[in-house]
Write a structure and sequence with these properties.
The complex is a heterodimer. Chain A has helices spanning about 15-20, 30-35, 40-70, 80-115, 125-140, 175-200, 215-245, 260-295, 300-315, 330-360, 365-390, 390-400, 400-430, 440-465, 480-510, 550-555, 580-600, 615-630, and strands at about 545, 565, 575, 600-605, 610, 640. By secondary structure, chain A is mostly helical. Chain A has one domain (about 40-565): Up-down Bundle (Cytochrome C Oxidase, Chain A), CATH 1.20.210.10. In chain A, the strands form three sheets. Chain A has a two-stranded antiparallel sheet. In chain A, strands 3-6 form a two-stranded antiparallel ribbon. In chain A, strands 4-5 form a two-stranded antiparallel sheet. Chain B has one domain (about 20-215): Up-down Bundle (Four Helix Bundle (Hemerythrin (Met), subunit A)), CATH 1.20.120. Chain B is built from six helices and four strands. In chain B, α2 (about 20-50) packs parallel to α6 (about 185-210), α3 (about 70-95) runs antiparallel to α6 and α4 (about 95-125) runs antiparallel to α5 (about 145-175). Chain B is elongated, with a radius of gyration of 21 Å. Classes of the chains: A mainly alpha, B mainly alpha. The structure holds protoporphyrin IX containing FE (HEM) and copper (II) ion. Protoporphyrin IX containing FE (HEM) binds near residues 88 and 495 of chain A.
Amino acid sequence: MATESIKYLAPDTENKAKTQVFPRPGQHTTGLIDWLTTIDHKKIGLMYGMTALFFLIVGGLEALLIRSQLWDHNMDVLTNRQYNQMFTMHGTTMVFLVIMPLSAAFFNFIMPLQIGARDVAFPRMNALSLWCFVGGGLILNLSWFFTGGSPAIGWFGYAPLTDTRFAEVVGDMGPDFWIFSLQILGVASLLASFNFITTIINMRAPGMTMMRLPVFTWMTLIVSFLIILAFPAITIALVELMFDRTYGTNFYDFLEGGKPHLWQHLFWIFGHPEVYILILPAMGIVSEVIPVFSRKPLFGYGLVIFSGAIIGFMGFAVWSHHMFTTGMGVVATSAFAMLTMLIAIPTGVKIFNWIGTMWGGRIRFDTPMLFALGFITMFMIGGFTGIMHSSVPIDAQHQDSYFVVAHFHYVLIGGALFGLFCGFYFWLPKMTGRMLSEKLGKFVFTLMFLGFNLTFFPMHYLGMIGQPRRTHTYNEGHGFETWNQIATVGAFILGLGIVIGIYQFVSAFFNKKLKPAGSNPWDARTLEWALSSPVKEYNFARTPIIKARDQAWENNYGPRENHAEKEPLDDHGVHMPDRSWWPLVTALGLFGLALGMLFHRTIDPSGELVRDYTAPILAGSIAILGMIMWALEGPGGYHLFPKENDE
Amino acid sequence: MSDASAHALEHHEPVTSTGIPNKKVLMWAFLGSDCMFFGTLISTHLIYRKISATVGGNFLDIRDVFDIELTSFSTFILLASSLFMALGVSAIHKGNLKSMRWMLLGTIIFGAIFLACQVYEFTHFIHAPGNELTLSTYRGEPHVFGSTFYVLTGTHGTHVAIGVFWLIGWLAYSFTGKMSVAHAIDIEICGLYWHFVDIVWIIIFPVIYLMEYAL
Ligand code: HEM
Ligand SMILES: [Cu+2]
């Protein structure tokens, strides 16, 4: 697609490549090598998204196994240990390998387009983040094949479940896989966030002031800050746990002076901001979609952003509401209860803003809008149950019951996942250049909406009548059966909806029969809709000069002085960076380092513990070599010469 | 036009929205995150120091194993290294490669002395006769002090080591003949990192070491 617009190649480009010792893969790289070495934010975003959709299927199958086990009392689909493994892997997968990377996919693909940038600030670092994510996901799922199988410790990994002395299987490696995978995924998230922060602060097109940024970009910025401030807590907690398990330290070992309680604090200091990391991107997406399909600007733009920032900030001060029943003392418990109730206010503000946006608008019920409306309503139900648990005595009843499971699925599926599906239906025409079938889209929405409510609404009731969560079965005579069966049927319907949805997303890239989208099929408002679909390799042929918020809308309907201008074409052309192998090599090194550390201990015939660091050192050297080559490979690059309006 | 953006234009660095180079924003974001890493480690240490204040039934007096003279010396060395670092940054801004090399070398040597002191300290503590402080015990009794102490100071030491290798990298690069004022920003962010690691030590030293003597 880009080759059409090239008039000639800058004279020195080809020669330069030859003089480099290890030339970076250049302009004409195609096929597999292109995907492995790409540093284009759009391709990286796509790979992030596709990998996450794959893991959504994996995590969904795990959930269906859980639901089959709970179909009736005393079922034997899974043993108790397998059940524990299943919900651990399901939770960890959905949080770290599905929702977060799906959000990252949109950050990558859409955010630079929204601010008028040609790429993120550090494209190679972006590629490293992608490969670390893939590596971390692999490590987590490799755990199935080694001693003890997958971790059975919950996605929260509470101590002392992780204590080696309490392992159900001698030499259980599950928790170790879990630790190393989360560490590598943490690297991926941190790198991506540093990159996005720099990009949004520094790479905005002229005139794109902070208060003109699209709301989705604002949420990207806030989430990135949450990630860089919240992930350190879990990283350190995991380092401490790794030391406990590998080198015998006593951080969480209550027999030797450690306090398991500390793990809960560190985990939730990360864990609560994490739930906002999961939901704010979806809120950003919905804040883009609702104005478009109501044909009105977002009501209270400033308030939406400000309440997002307040939610992010307060999110660091409520973590102990996950620990009300641990006996923290009256003062701490009351303080955290009050703060938790307070945080509902900025959340409610956003809901009213969305309603205000729709109020009096000319609403169109296309698929993205259906998902956005589904998001608002379902997220509200999850929010209400959340406010219920913020009351300490009530939470004492809810804790560890299915009521909590209902709560967090209303916010995570009804909220985050619906929001992300909304994003796919909204932006896929921009990514693929094709319109998705509205009929199929609406069918997917119906299945998901029905299936989701069938699955999770009864869980409120099941929780209230006492079904405990994290328990592999229940006895006869509690009256749990009927509602569990309804939930299981619902889960399969939801699963079917998700699978058809994924099929629809993937086929949009290949199905040539779909209607072409044109640059702005939804009559949408933000800058990315001023570009052609699919977006050209260089994004913007000429840097836009932004005159207003909702620039694409202003270009079409606004007064003259609000129309965007463009910087003149540069006669040097558009500088495109070359691709690079080193992010992949560095990530491979880190992947090997984690595996090496996982297997560096063996028990020799005499029963002695033997440590062999050859493999980790080798793999670590590969990572370091990757970084050195990265630093030395030089800018490289080539020039494209698009015509005036070829964007 | 500010100095930095004048340089940026000269060297075809992309002009940024804020005028601050991308690498600098990146480093500041990283340091913000790193504060939380150390914050978590330091709080872990302090919490356990308070709730596990005895060992084998006796009050835990860590002064029996600490060697405060040595640590004060290494603290001084690390602080002094920051002066070299600052001078190195200012030298490259002026285009004075030769002076930058000496200053980086000074920083590296002082950083290395600090690390050597730490290695000595660790081996010394682990083998302190009668007062052995290991990762999991103190005087042979299970305790958390060794866990929190070694992991915290070890993480700081790792930061210093990374800084030393990073500076060695730039020192080596300065001999390739490709280094110029354009790289001032690279040395500057090294400097930011180095000073930050120093500041963290300024917190660790009183809170982890000196406070043990204040009682
Ligand atoms: C196909 C749709 C899904 C179904 C049927 C489903 C079902 C379940 C079930 C049955 C449990 C175990 C409850 C227990 O006994 O403790 C669970 C736990 C959980 N789910 Fe889902 N889920 C689905 C999708 C999601 C999604 C999209 C997320 C997104 C983040 C998610 C996040 C979680 C979390 C965090 C847990 C807690 C895990 C733990 O306690 O270890 N789920 N889910
Ligand atoms: Cu929470």
